[in-house]
Amino acid sequence: MASSSSRITRTTARSMSLRTRPSILNSSVTIYEPEDIEALSTSVSPEPIPESSRRTKRIKREYDYEPPASSTPRKRQKSDASIPRKVVKATPPKKAKPIPQALAEPHPAPENWREVYDTIKEMRSRITAPVDTMGCDQAQRNESDPKNRRFSTLVALMLSSQTKDEVTDAAVIKLRAAVGGSLSIDAVIKTDESVIAEAINKVGFWRRKSGYIKKAAEKLRDDFDSDVPKTVDELCSLSGVGPKMAFLTLQVAWNLNHGIGVDVHVHRITNRLGWHKKPTKNPEETRLNLQSWLPTELHRDINHLLVGFGQVICVPVGPRCDTCELSKKGLCPSAQKVVKTTKRKPIVPSAPDSPAKVKIELEEDAKYPKPPIDQESMAQLEIMPKEEEEDLPIPKSEIL
Ligand code: SF4
């Protein structure tokens, strides 16, 4: 206020007459200005006005004030139809790469592989593993329609990744009941995804898998005449289906032997046996190596053989080298000395003429040194925190 008064006083002192007008912003404010503003600019000596004077600045702003236009130039520019808009093209879905079937240079057959294979086969004949009674081939047992049998097999395999056979088997039974008693493509399409999720919520990645099963059923209806396709590439085009599931589906559902189904057991055991020149980093590397030298007639059997062996004897942590014939025969480079622990239950062998096989109970926490294989990749494949995994997309390496 003091600044404004002093300015007016200075103006009147030079005999300049002032005129008044109301502010265009506030009618209760009166603006004082010289009648001859040009004369003022020449006659009044430029006296510095303190920068801190807000009042002075505010009056000046009122002179300069221009009412805003109805829209800013920027907005006008945007709404100008003459300016061409940028067209965002939809990117076409990526074409799936075909699953490789052979190595450029075959892997050499390991020495003594036949003796090792036959020894494992002999051990397997004396034990019953979960895969023998609850494997993916069991999922079709309650279906009579051939299409439903094939679809049940595929669903069981989709549920089986990161899940024990016992849990997978129970989930298939529950899912079949939830969709109306028969695990058909139509029934899954008609069933709400939340109902599917509820039925399979004990398996790993159950949220993701419920979506995958639903999407797979729709794709099978739309692209494959409501049936399971007969090629690996077509099977791998389904959400959540990888090479291991595809090869096993072909073997079980169609009786087609197009390759080896390599899961974590086959990957781990063949590395422990030293069957790869360099330890393989993932199941796909393992599959291509094995397929290049293992006789084709064994491609189907090796999965079942090694899965059961890996479930009971050559387990991921604390392999039972004390009971393994390969250790006794000096055929395994990863054989370990037994670490005595009171927590470890003894294995009771079956009577030689007993028709019943022995189911060996395992201790998960026996402390054995780690075998000399690619521990990092095995850890990724086998040790997944259950709760964390639910909301994450299934890593490609897990869709085997
Ligand atoms: S000796 Fe031990 S590591 Fe080797 S195959 Fe047998 S259980 Fe597995």
TrEMBL record:
Segments of skewed composition (Low complexity): 1-17
GO annotations of cellular component type: mitochondrion; nucleus
GO biological process: one example: nucleotide-excision repair
Biased composition (Basic residues): 86-97
Subcellular location: Nucleus; Mitochondrion
Catalytically driven reaction(s): 2'-deoxyribonucleotide-(2'-deoxyribose 5'-phosphate)-2'-deoxyribonucleotide-DNA = a 3'-end 2'-deoxyribonucleotide-(2,3-dehydro-2,3-deoxyribose 5'-phosphate)-DNA + a 5'-end 5'-phospho-2'-deoxyribonucleoside-DNA + H(+)
UniProt-listed Enzyme Commission number(s): 3.2.2.-, 4.2.99.18
Region (Disordered), start-end ranges: 1-110
Keywords, in A-Z order: 4Fe-4S, DNA damage, DNA repair, Glycosidase, Hydrolase, Iron, Iron-sulfur, Lyase, Metal-binding, Mitochondrion, Nucleus, Transit peptide
Molecular function terms, GO-annotated: 4 iron, 4 sulfur cluster binding; class I DNA-(apurinic or apyrimidinic site) endonuclease activity; DNA binding; metal ion binding; oxidized pyrimidine nucleobase lesion DNA N-glycosylase activity
Biased composition (Polar residues): 18-30
HhH-GPD domain residues: 159-312
InterPro entries documented for this protein: DNA_glycosylase, Endonuclease-III-like_CS2, HhH-GPD_domain, HhH_base_excis_C, HhH_motif, NTH1
Function in brief: Bifunctional DNA N-glycosylase with associated apurinic/apyrimidinic (AP) lyase function that catalyzes the first step in base excision repair (BER), the primary repair pathway for the repair of oxidative DNA damage. The DNA N-glycosylase activity releases the damaged DNA base from DNA by cleaving the N-glycosidic bond, leaving an AP site. The AP lyase activity cleaves the phosphodiester bond 3' to the AP site by a beta-elimination. Primarily recognizes and repairs oxidative base damage of pyrimidines.
Family: Belongs to the Nth/MutY family.
Protein name (Swiss-Prot/TrEMBL): Endonuclease III homolog
